[in-house]
Amino acid sequence: MAALSTALNIARSSLATVAGQTAIASKNISNVGNADYSRKSAVVISMAGGGSAISGYTRAADKLLFDKMLVASSNSAASSSVLAGINRLSETVGDPESGYSPAGMIGKFQTALQVYEQNPADQTLAQNAVQSAGDLVRSLNAATTIIQDVRKQADTGMSDAVERINNLLQQFKIANDAIVRGSGSATDLTESLDTRDKIMKLLSEELGIRAVTRSNNDIALYTDSGVTLFESVPRTVTMNPTSTMTAGVSGNAVYIDGVDVTSPASTMAIRSGNLFGLAKLRDDVAVVYQGQMDEVARGLIEAFAETDQSALPVLPAATGIFSYSGSPAVPAGATTVAGLAGDIRLNASVDSAQGGLPSRLRDGGINGASYVYTSSAAAGFSGRLAALIDGLGATRAFDSSTQLTGQYSVMSLGTASSGWLEAARLQASSASDLQSTMKSRSADALQRVNGVNIDDEMTVMLE
What we know:
Layout: H1 2-30, E1 40-46, E2 52-59, H2 63-89, H3 102-118, H4 123-182, H5 190-206, E3 209-213, E4 219-223, E5 228-231, E6 233-234, E7 237-238, E8 255-256, E9 259-260, H6 274-303, E10 322-323, H7 340-343, E11 345-346, H8 360-363, H9 383-393, H10 410-450, H11 454-462
Antiparallel strand pairs: 1-2, 3-4, 4-5, 5-6, 7-8, 8-9, 10-11
């Protein structure tokens, strides 16, 4: 009778074990293709009196592959953020053949001046040249609006990223605490481990992270620059959004536990992730491009400035057809005036819509009688127009912060700026494609190790 009872107990334990294994296999099958699920297995042990039992559960894991995937995810997110912003900046250039970019408008203005020079008595041609100058001014104003909008959107994106990071760190603490408490016990921790990994994946999209495993399966998180992000408790991530983003205004930095991790002056700046990409866009790429537009505007003001034509000139140079809020003073040479491309205006003295005379473009006198270039007031005078055309193509000194090396005229600077932006776009696009591929390959490699193979699971169910 005892033997029969023992046999029955062995059979029951074996059936229970098989049922448990089948349940795990069924759960695995239901998660085929789920990138956030790791294949689960039951740990089966033999009982002293015969039979078997499930003593716990494990999951497939490969820390090396997982860490590589986190790095790839951070790099991909950074590249995508930069590319999205540069694509928006490219709206300032548009179709190069359309001629609506600042560089294109400079070319149209030059052509209008050349046509006017051939027949300086024609008031229609004078009006056309002034109208072309107005179009050029509007293109620079529009470029500044787009650039600062890109910076503002990046600033808002950084603030949103900070909020997501703080929320994810709170979720990470819940999952991590459950794992630490359950380590060394019979508690099934596989779901909590999956949850914690999923949170780390999401965090890696926001900023580069490094995970360090400690005793009891505890994990400490650090940024890719070494700043502590989580160590038993989350560190606070803060940022004050910039209320008004204008040229020359620096965006606020992101701080982790009081440490600056995004500003150009930071000694522990993060190097990857969406947050890094947005900061690079807001504080670097867009700032440099704005500086280029500002220098184009300054070059135009300088090239078209009027000088004292008196026999003994004593008056300073004064702004001509192109003015700005600081007129009539001409901005200092080779020094960027932040936001000048948004501030440049068509001088009312030559704009017929504002009561001005377009012929002042030919004769001078925008700033009074001392600045008139012809004493005879002859309608056929073209000397001033010829000088302006030469000035548009003359080599000038520009601020080195534009990152455009070499010698440029106002015309060639505008063209070089468009080329710089296109080169930046192509580089960002290539980097984004590469990092996206790396992320996909890393995820595939991890999935092959951690993921569910339906054939294997069906075999378990049929055993």
